[in-house]
Amino acid sequence: MNLKDKYINFFVSKGHKQIPSAPVVPENDPSVLFNTAGMQPLIPYLMGEPHPYGKRLCDYQKCIRLTDLDSIGDKTHHTFFEMLGNWSLGDYFKKESIAYSFEFLTKVLQIPIEYLAITVYKGDEKIPRDEVSAQVWKELGIKEERIAYLDKEHNFWIPGSSGPCGGDTEIFYWRSSKSVPEVFDPEDEDWVEIWNNVFMEYYQEEDGSVHELTQKNVDTGMGLERVVAVLEHKEDNYLTSIWDEARTLLETISGKPYEGNEESMRIILDHIRTSVIIASDPAHIKPSNTDQGYILRRLIRRAIRHARKLGIDLNSNFEEQLARCFIKLYQEYYHEVKDNQEIVLNILKNEKEKFSKTLEKGLKIFEKISEQKEEIDGEMAFHLYDTFGFPIELTIEVAKEKGLNVDIKGFDEKFKEHQEKSRTASVGKFKGGLSGNSEIETKYHTATHLLNAALKKVLGSNVHQLGSNITEERLRFDFPCDHKLTEEEKKKVEDLVNEWIEKAIPVTHEVMEKEKAIASGAECMFIDKYPDMVTVYKIGDISMELCGGPHVNNTKEIGHFKIKKEEASSAGVRRIKAIIE
Ligand code: SER
């Protein structure tokens, strides 16, 4: 049985419910590009909202971390990884959580206790030292000299700069053929962290102040690739069974051994795998020059450049072969990987074809410059970006290999100049000043606010927006609800929205202080994500929301509203797709 199944089985046997993995592109949090931890989709529940699956949860979650993008190529870093997690939402706390982790590691995975060491939070002026956790570990047989008390920098977990947080206890494993030292030295890199149990007791505000949460939670996270490496006694994560098939295939495709070509091979393997995950996500990300699309583009283009470096024929379907390996590996666990495989393969192929055309020419420029100069100036870096499709990060990487500097500041200036030009152009195109939003999208935007208000009236005030997406064809709206809407409920919602449209209600907006907006009852998804001054859109006394707009001036402009589909989006979350006619 593989690790994911063993983990889920174990926690299910301890009364946990398995929740499905959330999409890797967060649906309700515009402040981050990707889910970086298993707990991220659970934030509303960690803050007290009841979870439809109960108080004991477990899952495996697709995560992407970009902080380590430049480290890819070494033995241990990945952009995509899977995180195993278990949670107690106001149910058990430190004692049970630690006991479960210990039992899973030593009984199910049969890791000898001698190979384990622990860190606990040493406390600070606001939060006391975590004696309880240390005591539990000792009672389970961990020796005092294998427990280290560390500060906030190491043993405190918070998702970003604010949010539910708390001290944690981390479990380390001795990953070396050298004999295990008696005394645990957390600085010694042969001790690797494998599991993190966060005891979320607090909420930290943006200003750093901390208050206690009424509900005390446990949030644990275990990096799958790391644990597999530990269990398979591999010091190089890319030599584990996770990568065996793809790595061997890459050796065959390139006609080169892994040994001696590790860096390029790891980059190709990692980047193609992450691209498969991003491109198969329900968010339908395509390579582009902004946000997630830009990351996808960077990953594919960097993989292609390294494939060329290994001498792989870019006209072959090497990217497809590798992608198929990863599709096979993940499709059983993430159905979207299977459902969207054709989309994924097309994206990879198209992006490869696009970039292969300019890659050679771009690389020649580096050759020429390195013969004459020591630096790629801002103008040239921008030219490489704009004409030859080199993401700036790729330019920096190739330049480094050739011993060249890059004037990044100069590039940024050129980039801004260019953006300014295209912005002016687009304002010119949409004379009404609705840059980037067509008239129909604007109507959908206002209709979304009306739908939100109507759902509250029909289903109860706890309905709110968990996610929203607008195209020229439809709106999509996700909200918490524990049942499939009845025909009658759907009709009521539809009728209400149309009634409000017919009433020709003016839509007004006002810029005000965030605190004042919230105090006056304006709705928003994540209060901390907004700046101090916010725009509040009002539709008569029907709706008041923090929003960037744009909206129609009067509801009458919307037309006729119709719900096309109502379905489950994820556990306890329903999704409505609606059109205007
Ligand atoms: N949130 C913690 C982490 O990411 C535990 O899940 O490590």
Give an overview in words.
The chain folds into 4 domains: 235 residues, Bira Bifunctional Protein, Domain 2 (BirA Bifunctional Protein, domain 2, 2-Layer Sandwich), CATH 3.30.930; 113 residues, no CATH class; 60 residues, no CATH class; 143 residues, Threonyl-tRNA Synthetase, Chain A, domain 2. Helices cover 41% and strands 21% of the residues. The protein contains 18 helices and 18 strands. The strands form 4 sheets. Strands 1, 2, 3, 4, 5, 6, 7, 8 and 9 form a 9-stranded mixed β-sheet that branches. It has a 4-stranded antiparallel β-sheet with strand order 12-13-18-17, covered by helices on one side. Strands 14-15-16 form a 3-stranded antiparallel β-sheet. Helix 8 packs across helix 10, helix 10 packs across helix 12 and helix 13 crosses helix 15. The two termini are 52 Å apart. Serine binds next to strand 8 and strand 9.
Structural class: alpha+beta
**Low-confidence parts:** 426-436
The largest β sheet comes out as: 9 strands, mixed
What do we call the CATH topology of the largest domain? BirA Bifunctional Protein, domain 2
CATH classification, class level of the largest domain: Alpha Beta
What is the annotated CATH architecture of the largest domain?
Answer: 2-Layer Sandwich
Query: What are the distinct ligands in this entry?
Result: serine
DSSP helix count?
Answer: 18
Count every beta strand, where a strand is a DSSP E run of 2 or more residues.
18
Keywords:
18 helices; BirA Bifunctional Protein, domain 2; globular; 9-stranded mixed β-sheet; alpha+beta; 4 domains
